[in-house]
Amino acid sequence: MIYVVIGFLWLSVCLYVILGGADFGAGIVELMTKKKNRKYTEKIMYESIAPVWEANHMWLIIAIVILFVGFPEIYTTMSTYLHIPLVMMLVGIIARGTAFTFRHYDAVEDRWQIIYTQIFYYASLLTPFFLGLIAAATVSQSINPDANNFLDLYVFSWLNWFGVAVGLFTVSLCAYLASIFSLRETSDRLELGLMIKKSHQTMIFVVVTGLLVFFAAYFSDIPLTKWIFSKPLGVMSISFATVALGLILRAMHNRKLLPVRALAGFQIIMILVAATYQHNPDIILLGNGQHLSLLKHIAAEKTISALGWALVLGSLFILPFLFYLMFSFTKAKGKS
Amino acid sequence: MDDFIAARAQMALSLGFHIIFACVGMVMPFLMAFAHWKYLKTGNEIYKGLTKAWSKGVAILFATGAVSGTMLSFELGLLWPGFMKHAGPIFGMPFSLEGTAFFIEAIAIGFFLYGWDKFNKWFHWFCGFLVGLSGLASGILVVAANAWMNSPTGFDYINGEYVNIDPIKAMFNEAWFPQALHMTVAAFCATGFAVAGVHAFLIMRKKNVEFHTKAFRIAAAFAMIGAFGAPLSGDVAAKSVAERQPIKLAAMEAHFETEKGAAFVIGGIPDEEKGEINYALKIPKVLSFLATNDFNAEIKGLNDFPKDEWPPVAVVHYAFQIMIFFGVVMICIGSLYLYAFFFKKQWLNKNWLLKTFLFATPFGYIALEAGWTVTEVGRQPWIIYGIMKTVDAVTPMPGIQYSFYFFTAIFISLSLIIIFLLRRQIQMVPKLYDPTDAQFNSKNKKS
Predict the structure, then answer these.
(1) β-strand partners of B158
(2) Minimum-distance CB partner of B398 among A54, A150, A317
(3) How many separate helices (H) and strands (E) can be counted in chain A?
(4) Which residue among B68, B89, B96 sits closest to A72, beta carbon to beta carbon?
(5) Which residues fall within 8 angstroms of residue B325, CB to CB, at 6 or more apart?
(6) Dihedral sign from CA coordinates of A297, A303, A307, A313
(7) Within the 187-226 window of chain A, which residues sit less than 8 Å (CB to CB) from chain B?
(8) Residues A227 and A234: beta-carbon distance below 8 Å
């Protein structure tokens, strides 16, 4: 059953990064757009995330619940030593979610829209940045429970160049996803052309920040290249992600938009595989040499099996319903 | 402010804030679905407008409830890691099921809000109803987790170790049913009165009277169900507390000396130092009866418990009194309305009746917050009743007071924005939602 639980944890993290990431990306892409083009970008972004945006963020909740029920030590270690970036991420989630809703459900359109929109933009940047920072902190051995002063325990546990680079990389991934996902929401050739241009820009950001991550790792003595390239699976997943990039460019050129979406999702999964596989099943590498493992630091067996069943049963309800939601809105758009 | 107090204050504030939106999220969709059903049955466009107007309210409040709920799931770990490390695997079962319910709610709300004229009309209606149903399920499941803190079961506590963990048994703990029942009823009561009060106010302003009257009638009906259900479910809850947490009952009633045929105390100022209550109205033997169904039963007083295990008596007592007071007031208003509805139809349009409901707008929520204060503060100093003290669960990170100030600012600004937004929704009723209004569909429209 533990593998079912880990599978669901992995699935919800992936889906959160892909779907929630695209949500955050929507705000970032809007922010990156010149003022004169913002109106239609806003419209496209809204169309692509509106019906599902509430659901997208549920994946984070599922991941958190799996962590605290099934892996309490991992959850409490993270929430103790990464308190500050978690709070920052939380603030981003709150601000973004509410600003998005307020912007679209406010009955009157006036200068308040500008305020909601600004909050929406900057919160969309803040959240994935800290998400990346937190992810980096779990593997960079910067969390050291044996430290004995405030700065080492609660600040330098996450604040370092590697974390910042991973944060920026996550931000660009989100923008990239949003620009790719929105291609299918454009209503004419001009819009499509402009959005493809946008996708090219975000792609460049991804590549540049990706390189930045490797530089930061090198200068912080984190053996990232060894982690990724020393095992066949790592090499394979990075190659797949690169090949996917080529295929995406080609499909975009031929205006084949559905495969573009699928390939981008696949790419993100490959990047996540490459980034996490090496340590598997360890999920947090602590500064004192201890590793917290998904197979060792787990809750009682009865809890894991109950959690596994709850997840399986829950997904039987959720997944068909969710797919029907996504499918029916895609279809509805196709008609109009 | 020390870290422990700051952490408790932040948690209390977050819960107090979230509960409001959680309760709206549980009940408001049912009001909306009811109006929608009326529309589908009668074809009256006003009901369609009302459904849409309420659905916008649901969307705004749901989003706020969702983010404050997300916040809580983080705060459990950020503020109480010592608690979550042990409790997570034991009481986490309802949270994982709640994830499913909440997810379904989020999907259903997507279908409902964006699905007008896109789906079969009954499927569309059902999605709205499902929002309420899954909201209700989430509420009931989260209460199961809280109830476990009051009635910890499903594990053995041996030498400081939590062993033989059984999450299913923990979920079906004794406090769950009474707490969830009372909570659900209270949510209906609070939301019903709040919505009815707002529409009563708008009827009095003589604009879109038919629209707001229809809305008022539906909300008032829900308020009635809640108001009359509250004392019944409250009785079940009180008996359960008396049995499981006698010290909480004693604090609720500021009952210091153990006695047979204990009196029910109304009002009064408890003096914790001297162990007595002054200026209170006492109704003989009623406390014994309420707690056990026996007028002469013995009720344990606070003095029979070690003083370091007392909850803050005054807070719990006052909160309990506030809850009872507003509960009784709401029953009176409910009875008045029912009387008018069946026997004095002409009263229904009278300003004084509407004014009564206007004043009662916050009563349900005041009672609800007071009730939660009784439950939560009444459990102190324990975070897991009888097992783990709250002080042992708090995060080792210093500087929590800044986090408290920060989140307080967030909550205050969110509350202000929501009030502002709901006001704007109401102002737009003639243009957006009331098809009988001359301004309907005029400029400044947003679908």
Answers:
(1) B161
(2) A150
(3) 15, 2
(4) B89
(5) none
(6) positive
(7) none
(8) yes
A303 touches chain B (CB under 8 A): yes
- Distance of alpha carbon A284 from the chain centroid: 18
Strands B264-266 and B156-158: unpaired
Mean pLDDT lowest for which of A178-192, B50-64, B396-410? A178-192
Given a contact cutoff of 8 angstroms between Cβ atoms, the answer to whether A329 and B115 are in contact is: no
* ipTM for the whole predicted complex goes beyond 0.85: yes
Mean pLDDT of B271-278: 83
| Interface size, chain A vs chain B, as Cβ–Cβ contacts under 8 Å | 202
pLDDT tens digits, B222-235:
999 999 999 999 99
A1 touches chain B (CB under 8 A): no
Nearest to A76 among B77, B403, B444 (CB): B77
Average pLDDT over residues B342-356: 86
Answer for the pair B139, B183: CB distance below 8 angstroms, yes or no.
yes
Give the Cα separation of A201 and A37 in Å (integer).
Answer: 15
Element housing A313 (H / E): helix A301-335
Q: Residues 115-154, chain A: which have Cβ within 8 Å of B?
A: 150, 153-154
Contact B124, B182 (CB under 8 A): no
pLDDT digits (tens, 9 = 90+) for A187-229: 778 788 888 888 899 999 999 999 999 999 999 888 888 888 8
Per-residue model confidence as pLDDT tens digits over B387-416: 999 999 999 989 899 999 999 999 998 889
Helices (H), B151-175: 167-171
What does the radius of gyration of chain A's CA atoms come to, in whole angstroms? 20
- B160 φψ region: left (φ > 0), alpha (ψ -120 to 50), beta (else): left
For residue B77, give Cα distances in angstroms to A150, B5, B119. Answer: 19, 16, 42
Helix or strand (DSSP H, E) at B418: helix B400-427
Q: Which of B102, B110, B145 is nearest to B128 (CA)?
A: B110
Please report residues of B whose CB lies closer than 8 A to that of A318. Answer: 100, 103-104, 107
Distance of CA A33 to the CA centre of its chain: 21
Terminal Cα distance for chain A, rounded? 46
- A15 touches A69 (CB < 8 A): no
Residue B10 — very low, low, confident or very high, per pLDDT cuts 50/70/90? very high
Q: Which of A87, A93, A105 to mutate to test the interface with B (most CBs of B within 10 A)?
A: A105
Distances in Å between the Cα of B430 and the Cα atoms of B209, B215, B320, B368, B424 are 11, 14, 42, 33, 12
Q: How far is A6 from chain B (nearest CA, A)?
A: 14
| Phi/psi of residue A240, nearest 5 degrees | -60, -45
Q: Which residues contact B41 (CB under 8 A, 6 or more apart)?
A: none
- Report the candidate in B407, B411, B330 with the shortest Cα–Cα distance to residue B363: B330
B145 vs A290: CA distance, rounded Å: 32
Mean pLDDT in residue range A177-194: 82
pLDDT (0 to 100) of residue A3: 92
CB contact under 8 A, B100 and A106: no
Report the distance separating Cα A190 and Cα A158, nearest Å. Answer: 44
- Work out whether strand B281-283 and strand B264-266 pair parallel, antiparallel, or are unpaired: antiparallel
Q: Which segments of chain A are extended strands (E)?
A: 282-285, 291-293
Please report where in the chains the tokens 């937004």 appear, as a residue.
B421
